[in-house]
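If you are new to this repository, start here. Below is one unmodified record pulled from the training split, so you can see the exact layout before writing a loader.
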Amino acid sequence: MITVKNLKKKFGNKIVLKGINLNVEKGERVVIIGPSGCGKSTLLRCINGIEKLTSGKVIFEGKDINSKNVDINKIREKMGMVFQQFNLFPHLTITENIILAPVKLKIMTKEDAVKKAVELLELIDLKDKKDMYPSQLSGGQKQRIAIARALIMNPEVMLFDEPTSALDPEMVDEVSNLMKDLAKNGMTMIVVTHEMSFVKECASRVIFMEDGNIVEEGTPKDIFENPKSDRLKEFLSKVK
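And here is the target side for that same chain:
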């Protein structure tokens, strides 16, 4: 589904990604871990075209997303992205936030979008919040709404960039549980997170990054029970 070939990314003179190679198959749940500043979030942002590549390629369903002949907005319709911050529009109700993109892009009529939004709100157990505004919700509720906003586009893959890092500890579980449900239902996912319990429960493959490189990858069992590199061993000793 997604192939990353020798991806390099520079910001000024700083090389953030130093030649990443990665394949993600349909239905995989790839979780990326590593210390802050190692390039995890930049990799996600390159995969969905938010950041332009310095060199290399990102192929999505056979299309080079950085090709001049590719409509990046069409690609993004198939890639749901959830950020650390919720990015909800404060002046719109919860329902209006969810339906904004599909209605504006003429993917759905407003009537169909509202119907789908209500279904998603039922799924995430927030139907009673449909007419409220973001300021009336907790952080965990806002992040679940952000996930619903991405899901309404019927994406083929979901990208999560540390979705629980901005939440109070007691709110982490409600977002993690929703992501676990998506994983159980077969959603293809690439997740950057520091929540090791989520990694152990939901990842089909774990990638450990350090200093702009993929240092090690394997199943959760491989990574947590039999780490090979000294750097991964050191990292795990600090996060367990």
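Two things worth knowing about this chain: The chain has a mean pLDDT of 94. The CA atoms of residues 196 and 240 lie 8 Å apart.
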